[in-house]
Amino acid sequence: TIATPVVSAQGDTVAFLGFAQWTGPDPRDLAAVRRHVRRAASEYPRVVVTMHMGAEGRGRQRTPNARETFYDEDRGNVVAFARAAVESGADLVIGHGPHVMRAAEWYQGKLVFYSLGNLVTYGPFSMGEPLNRGGIACAVLDGDGAILSAQLRSTVQRPPGLVSVDAAHRAAVLTDSLGRLDFPRTGARLDRYTGQVLRADGTPLPGAVPAPAGDVVTPGSVPPRRRPQAPRRQAGPGS
Predict the structure, then answer these.
(1) How far is it, in rounded angstroms, from Cα 56 to Cα 61?
(2) What is the pTM of this model?
(3) Confidence band, pLDDT 50/70/90 cuts, at residue 123
């Protein structure tokens, strides 16, 4: 498997390497995971690894360090996969597949998002809570792959397939709560009003920039939508 390099406008290169059991490489084969990630890390300065793993559905928000099954199908051990990837050189690991938000974790100084929920899946998928919640993971990495700052931007889907920013940051709230439950010592903390990712002890990352006051939304502070006012008619001669 060859990683896909993406070059930014500034000339920075980030390699992406995805794993899924149906198309390969199989994320349940940890020896192959280590081999592919090591090769990517030897060729590129920054490596982002993605995994399509884990059981699905409303009752699958918790992240077990164990093999998961879904309709008798082996969906692998997401924690074992993520740690194998990081140990082999991954700088950021992002999971998808459970269709619900899951915890985020710091492992050996690297960030792991175990599931980002649903972004654009309206149609054949149920969009009841919490399946309508999603998150967009954003991160700034330095030249060596260290994470300087990260943010989870919460989204919500509404019929008939509309995706919008969730001003209440519910995906960030879920990720923060699940991190405390599933990884009490290593779970990433999230600012519940900005989605900013914090260290496991709640301290900010070195490159984190405080959000402007106007971007902070607290419960009950979302202003109501205002109907656009029609332009006033100008009085003229004879009016």
Answers:
(1) 9
(2) 0.86
(3) confident
